[in-house]
Amino acid sequence: MKKIIFYPLAIIFLLAITSCQNMFSQNDWENPEMFQQNREKARATFYTYSTLDKALLDNPEDESFIKCLNGKWKFNFTDHSDKGIPDFQKVGFDDSKWDEIPVPGNWEMYGYGYPHYTNVVYPFEKNPPFIKDSQNSVGSYITYFEVDEHWLNREIYIQLGSVKSGYYLWINGNKVGYNQGSKLPAEFNITPYLKKGTNKLAVKVFKFTDGSYLEDQDFWRLSGIQRDVYLFAKPKTHISDFFAKALLDATYENGEFALEVEIKNTLAKKVSNLKLQYQILDAGGKEILSNENIFSIKSSSVNKLSFTDEIPKVNSWSAENPNLYTLVLNLEDSKGNTMEATSIKIGFRTTEIKGGQLLVNGKPILLKGVNRHEHNQDHGHVVNEEDMLAEIKVMKRNNINAVRTSHYPNDPIWYKLCDQYGLYLFDEANVESHGMGYNPKNTLANKREWKAAHVERIINMVERDKNHPSIIVWSMGNEAGTGPNFLEAYKAVHARDTNRPVHYERAEKETDITEHHTDIISNMYAPIDWVANRWVGSDAERPFIWCEYSHAMGNSSGNFKEYWDLVRGNRQIQGGFIWDWMDQGLTKYSEDGTKFWAYGGHFEPEGVYTDGNFCFNGLVNPDLTPHPGLFEVKKVYQNIHFKDLKISDGTITILNEQFFLDLDAYLVRWELMENGKTIQTGTFLPTGVSPQTEKAFNIGLKDFNPKKGDEYFLNMYALQGKETELIPFGHEVASEQFALTDFEKIDNKPIVSNNMIVKDVTDAIQITGKNFTVKISKKTGAITSYKLNNYELMNDPLVPTFWRAPTDNDFGNKMQIRCEVWKEAMNNATLESINHNTVSQSELTINTRLKLPTVEGAIDMAYSIYGNGDIKVDYTFKYDADLPEIPRIGVVFRMPREFDNLEYYGRGPWENYIDRNTAAFVGIYQSKVADQYYVYGRPQENGHKTDTRWLTLTNQSGLGFKIEANSKPIEFNTLHNSTADFDEGKVKTLRTPIDIKERDFVEVHIDHKMMGVGGDDSWGAKPHKPYIFYTDKVYNYSFTIRPEL
After folding, report:
1. Average pLDDT over residues 738-748
2. Cis, peptide link before residue 931, omega less than 30° from 0
3. How far apart are CA 1026 and CA 381, in angstroms?
4. How many CA atoms lie within 13 A of 503 on its CB side?
5. In the chain, where are the structural domains located?
6. Which end of the chain is more exposed for a tag (fewer CB within 10 A), N or C?
């Protein structure tokens, strides 16, 4: 026990010594061993209150000894670090002509410098620890605040929650200190520098410091004071820190509570007969535990008080059931008067690695997670509580239960909300040196002079966040190589907190270190096959959790179900964190005032390196509207599963994948569908399904007698049965669709007696029926015209196509180059033959063959035209060349814009692809063509639909086409744009949705197949083999075009 208490203090002492070495040899901001001057020791997040009642309310705005300094500050910007304003910190300096800037705020968002997006490449010349003056801008801040007389007999501190990247601080012209580490707060004691009345605060912020070599995260490089700034006045003797360890015993039923409190006496005399009391209150405010300690404290010293207690039958905390208690601390003087009080929320929760699994409260939870950057479309890295709560609401409604704080400690409010609403957190330190690479000779993790900086950033995160039950794992950083610096940090974290596992993805890779320094294996983007075939069985002691997987860049998130088939089939694979949560788009306006979300290259000057739209990897847009991929994630992540349907007796089994809650809070609804229409429906309560169990239910289905030739589905939905603060009553939390019959299209010829007239006209075969006229080109073999009641339905002919506009994943694997032959396949196509045969006066067949020399192939198109206007199209494609995969196999034509009423029977209502369609149920959907366009931040392939039985496109008069699949379902796109509109060519060119203008046509793709979108990564991975097409050399399908009157 003594080792656990004193080892961290030894580390902190060593850090303080090493941070002072070489402090005079070079600039503070270019010295890896100088990262703070006069900063207070890191501590847990809590506020100081003057009364017990105020502490219970825990609202700092109501406390007179807390003063928020957020607001408009005076600001000056210089683009060279050696061109700062001299003496601006002095009292009397004239700042009347300076600009004003919001605090918190990133100065680039207000026109100073520019937002710069880069992933790995440093935004400055790499030469650690140095930063060129010409690449390092400086922001100088001034603000004024009042100090009341009653503050002056207390110890007064200032906290700056987050400043990017390093800064000096002055009060009334007096230098207070220096700090680096842009994602943790820094506190300074400013008591000696204050006076009654008006005081001046000056801050000089460097955009980059040596610490920036450890802050090479994949996000916008933005600067400034970006979290809250506030003052607080504490008694001369006060609570300086505390660690509340709220755990469970071996039965996971009873609470074990240990409290360590540090009391600091700043007086030059001993203080006696102080009393520290603590209470633990339940959710209703009832006291369930209390204790106290009467003590004395020597002058200018720190006392440590310890308590241990037990609480029987405690209500434990989990993301499913985030039970919280209130811990109240009250420090009293010898007369029983409150000197200082505070309170926080705690949750009783145990996290451990046991039997090769990550256990929370003894259960091997599944992490259905996302990686989250702090991002706001208008304010950059400044995110407020309203933003955070909105994000959590969307996460909880989409079955996301875990977040990795990639790749730095978040605003303290985030943790408070995750405690309250229930999210598991991997809390990650602000350590990433990706731009240095992983070679042991180069990585900063191997360099002794960088050790203290590594360890300090990691241990200070632990100190700040140690009391949050939502944090189940400490993560030491990201993509920073490995070496003795991480081994040292790993030991330090375990010494300080023995109750949470420690994670680091790069641990034990490319290093001679043989000691374990991660408790979880988490290879980012490890392929499913590698995990299944190489990792499984290789490590019996540690679980596997993807710290990053399923790269959601643009039109992505394919084959997500396959990941979770593996997770659910192996006890040691416990989920992962999708990269990532939100597109990091920043609001920008075009010259005509149109808003769009900008990415890398839209702000930076020409010649400045940027990674383009690689910051658009989210499941949601910057305004939290969902990408279509989020619907698939919600489906795969769902906690309630329907299985083992026995339609003959109307029973179905419901599996509860939750670990702590039964299903009594939910309602189940079902619907029986016949050819896409509901013919029966019902509801029932899924009672009695304990966590991690399953139970069969009779759903109440009436007699089911399927008709031959008709198609039937049973749709099951689990709905929120009790409204919560974040999830409304009736919200769908889980779903499943069961096909009760196979798709069976009876390919009967239409029974018609209408005669047709066939004519050879110039360059075409013309077929005229009662109310239609069709032309088929004798030069191309294509249907070039279809008039219905003398109204032309086709703007452009029906021709084969093999191309789609490249997605971001396509660009990543070079599809736009590798598969270009398919883009050009029709360029030199020639009609080898065309002939027609009159079967009867009401039936004509026309057979065409197109030669495609580019791909050494041929397309046979057979048209069967009937007297009622039907055209049956039979398509066969054969090729012999050894070629890459085919992006799509289908035909395309155009209709006038007015045919924008879409109805279809297939998977929907959102876009879906063959590797991302389990959430899109087969049904009948009505919409507009314009609504089929999904607006990705960078234009690309979008709006596709799979497993389609039929679709109709009509105008306001009901005139148009119905297109029916014949032997097997088809796929389709309908947009007011062409494929070419979304195709940038071989190289991305900074396009955004404002470059896409709606056209005066409807482009209709009727596809046999389009390859999947993929999603393993966006820099080389192709769609999985079942979802790409190149092994077969023959492809055929059939559909019928019918007139709609």
Report:
1. 81
2. no
3. 41
4. 34
5. 2-234, 367-583+618-634, 638-739, 757-1044
6. N
Are 158 and 66 spatial neighbours (Cβ–Cβ below 8 Å)?
Answer: no
Residue in the structure block whose two tokens are 């999830």: 727
Assign 460 to helix, strand or coil. Answer: helix
Both structure tokens of 224: 């400034």
For residues 774 and 277, give the distance between their C-alpha atoms in angstroms, rounded to a whole number.
90
3-class DSSP assignment, residue 674: strand
Tokens matching residue 1036:
């055929």
HSE of 173, CA atoms in CB hemisphere, 13 A = 7
User: Which contiguous run of DSSP H or E holds residue 451?
Assistant: helix 451-465
State how far the Cα of 868 lies from the Cα of 847, in Å rounded to an integer.
20
Residue 465 tokens read as 């966040």
367-583+618-634 is a CATH 1.20.140.10 domain? no
How far is the C-alpha of 258 from the C-alpha of 466, rounded, in Å?
Answer: 13
**pLDDT tens-digit map of 689-727:** 999 999 999 999 998 999 999 999 999 999 999 999 999
Q: Which residues contact 13 (CB under 8 A, 6 or more apart)?
A: none
- In the chain, what is the greatest distance between 2 CA atoms, to the nearest angstrom? 114
**For residue 71, with 0-12 CB atoms within 10 Å meaning exposed, 13-18 middle and 19 or more buried, which class applies?**
exposed
Question: Which overall architecture, per CATH, does domain 757-1044 show?
Answer: Distorted Sandwich (2.70)
CATH architecture of 2-234: Sandwich (2.60)
Mean pLDDT of all residues in 749-774: 90
Which amino acid is present at 349?
A: R
Measured distance CA(848)–CA(861) in Å, rounded: 5
Written as six digits, the tokens of 533 are: 């075939």
Residue 56 burial (C-beta neighbours within 10 Å; 0-12, 13-18, 19+) = middle
DSSP letters for 166-210: EEEEEETTEEEEEEE-TTS-EEEE-GGG--SEEEEEEEEEES--G
Residue 583, number of CB atoms within 10 A of its CB:
27
Q: Which two tokens stand for residue 490?
A: 């790993």
pLDDT at 14: 42
The dihedral built from the CA positions of residue 169, 175, 181 and 183, taken in this order, carries a sign that is negative
Encode pLDDT of 549-595 as tens digits.
Answer: 999 999 999 999 999 999 999 999 999 999 999 999 999 999 999 99
Any idea which residues carry the catalytic annotation?
A: 479, 548
Domain 638-739 coded CATH 1.10.443.10: no
User: Among 858, 832, 856, which Cα is nearest to 778's?
Assistant: 832
- What share of the chain in percent tops pLDDT 70? 97
Evaluate if residue 827 carries a pLDDT over 50.
Answer: yes
